[in-house]
Amino acid sequence: TYSFTDRVRQDDAVRESFFELARQTFGLDFAPWYDFGGWGDNYIPHALLLDGKVVANVSVNTIDFRLDHKSLRLVQLGTVMTHPDHRGQGLSAALMREVLSRWQDRCDGIYLFANDSVVEFYPKFGFVKGEEYLYTRTVAQTGECRMENVPMNSAEGWQKLAKAMEMGEPLSMCAMVENSGLIFFYVSQFMQGNVYYDETLNAWAIAELEDGALMLHNVFAPEGVTQD
User: Fold this and answer.
1) Three-class SS state of 65
2) Beta-strand relationship, 43-50 and 53-67
3) What are φ and ψ of residue 169, in 5° steps?
4) Is the entire prediction scored with pTM above 0.90?
């Protein structure tokens, strides 16, 4: 018989089982994020257990935004996974219905990022496709770079980035507030080498360089952007 829990983080054995299923399903290792203290109250796995092991999961991440000077609470769903031995039984669908029932009246909206292989799974729960926008500009390279790469594989690096986020001013009209744990999750996984610091500006950036294009994910600086 399956049992339900939303207290994965608080149970040592269940938490380790969650870690193992995430590694097996997505190749993600949540352990460093937890060990460094990045996993806070905002990230809440909703899991089905069998014999004490996580066999299916849908995670809730509550995120507060400041949108054009107004407060907005959204829920991002993620880590939707089912153990291979338990697929085809509708477990993810049952969990999705449970999560939506619990959260739809407690936030201003629910969203998720779906990969191509499962994008048709979510419309049955009322989700609709949204447009994503990418802004670009051409820049001239001088050959000089004063940004220092700060690896995110130690508590020291995390603490420096955490301090920068606390001091940073919002740089967009839609800014996430008081959820550093989500950013720490990304930099503890596949973006460990994508954090940079500029001593001259006292500014931090999370960025990726691929095929000559720089993808700027976030900037943390003590002064906001001024419009010229």
Assistant:
1) strand
2) antiparallel
3) -90, 145
4) no
